[in-house]
Amino acid sequence: MGGSVLLPLLLPLLLLPGAAGGAAVCGLCPGPPRNDSVVSRYCASRAGAESDGRCCRERGARPERLLGLDLSNCSLRSLPPALAEAAATVVLDLTDNPLTALPNASFLGFTQLQCLAVPLSLQCPGGSGAWEEVTASGGGRLCRGQRNLCNSSRELAWPCPENAACAPAGPGLAQCLCSSPFHGYKCLREGAFPVLPFCGILGAVTLSLSVLLWGTQRRKAKTP
User: What angle do CA 44, 23, 38 make, to 5 degrees?
Assistant: First the structure.
């Protein structure tokens, strides 16, 4: 299991360096947020927030916290990889796009997301049970109030092992984090992770393979 196991996808949660800033994702579509978008309304109602391209940021925060992202009417047929940079966003608008699906894995790590607007033809990621309120109006579906799966009465598909605790990982997603000082597969190993022995063995194996490849290449070069 390692330090954490993601449920139900069993994938490690990777925190990208750009998650807080989201510089690339703000420039995916030209212009500022649309005046009628949920992102624009949220940004206008929150003190200390300002627009930056299609993003709404917290003014004065270092690094600047990404509060909202408006990707409505961007001709998106699938979610862009750069969306992972917006994992800290609170409000996200994806309406008016020819999207065909919203895989749950696309929102892995979006634990702060509280308001998501999607095309009317699509369901909220994680299903309606992953949100406090789901409404449909006009050309969009609004998913509000992301629920904490760990605090839900719904039974987890893969319960956490004895030495682990459940933690949210995004809409309809959860992860099992090993309780200190446990680690490893199913959190069965106790004590600190043996960093020095692990690095030593890894370095020795890498060095041995490098020497072997170097010797092989030299013999090939000497062969007429």
Answer: 30
Both tokens of 74, joined, read: 């961007």
Is the previous residue joined to 161 through a cis bond, with omega within 30 degrees of 0?
no
Rounded Cα distance between 154 and 170, Å, is: 16
* Contact call for residues 54 and 31 (beta carbons, < 8 A): yes
Rg (CA), the chain: 22
User: For residue 74, which amino acid is it?
Assistant: C
| Of the candidates 38, 40, 37, 62, the residue with the CA atom closest to the CA atom of residue 52 | 40
Name the residue among 76, 89, 49, 65 with its Cα closest to residue 171.
Answer: 89
My answer on whether omega of the bond before 98 falls inside 30° of 0, hence cis, is: no
Residues 19, 84: Cα–Cα separation, whole Å: 7
Q: Distance (Å, rounded) from C-alpha 131 to C-alpha 171?
A: 8
Q: Which residue has the tokens 């010797």?
A: 215
Tally Cβ neighbours within 10 Å of residue 76. 18
Segment 92-141, tens digit of pLDDT: 999 999 999 888 788 999 999 999 999 999 999 999 889 999 999 878 99
Predicted TM-score (pTM) of the model is 0.70
DSSP H or E stretch at residue 70: strand 66-70
Q: Which residues pair with 79 in a beta bridge?
A: none
Choose between 22 and 151: higher pLDDT. 151
